[in-house]
Design goal:
- The chain is mainly α and 193 residues long.
- Helices cover 70% and strands 0% of the residues.
- The radius of gyration is 23 Å and the shape is flat.
- The two termini are 24 Å apart.
Length: 193
């Protein structure tokens, strides 16, 4: 295992732990609050622009201040509501189920972040220029398979070029749990000459 594997497991663990503590209802409602604030800001933007224009002297700042102000106000209101609903669910009979589903949600979110990082890294830097610890990571093939699935779901005109990891680095779940000789991520023994 390399430091990259530890970072991947760290992202998964932190995301799962945060979602477990907050609960599934609060996590989902929190995402809904961001999406809802975005839609309300887009809807209310034309109505708020004349009021902000009369109040603000800078015409260049009217649009960002209007959109940002509506977005932040609506987001705060929706986050307070989602936090209140989440605390009601947590204190109810469904509290244990809420936390368990939150844990699963956190793992999925962490995996999505790892896959997104693979896609972005592959878009910015070709695989042959990646550092050796990244290429030696046992989680690299798993991240590639997830990234390949995500890219396949996109319309063809929006698919980024996805670089496959070097050949011979296929990893199974069992291989991730198996110890490697001399701590090498490839599992091949070091020659002692």
């Amino acid at each position: 295992m390399t430091w990259v594997d530890l970072a991947v497991f760290g992202v998964l663990a932190i995301s799962a732990l945060l979602a477990f503590v907050r609960g599934f209802a609060r996590e989902v409602l929190g995402i809904g609050a961001w999406v809802g604030a975005l839609f309300v800001a887009m809807w209310a933007f034309p109505f708020g622009r004349p009021h902000v224009r009369a109040w603000l002297g800078q015409p260049d700042l009217v649009d960002p201040v209007t959109f940002g102000g509506v977005f932040v106000i609506v987001l705060l209101i929706l986050l307070v509501i989602s936090s209140w609903i989440g605390s009601l669910v947590r204190r109810s009979v469904l509290g244990g189920v809420d936390r368990t589903l939150g844990l699963v949600f956190g793992l999925v979110r962490g995996a999505a972040l790892v896959v997104l990082a693979y896609i972005v890294a592959g878009t910015l830097v070709p695989v042959d220029r990646w550092p050796e610890p990244v290429l030696q990571a046992r989680t690299l093939p798993v991240a590639y398979r997830g990234a390949a699935w995500v890219v396949a779901q996109l319309p063809p005109e929006y698919r980024p070029r996805l670089f496959a990891p070097p050949a011979g680095r296929e990893t199974t779940a069992a291989a991730l749990l198996r110890a490697t000789p001399q701590g090498r991520a490839t599992g091949s023994p070091v020659s002692r000459e």
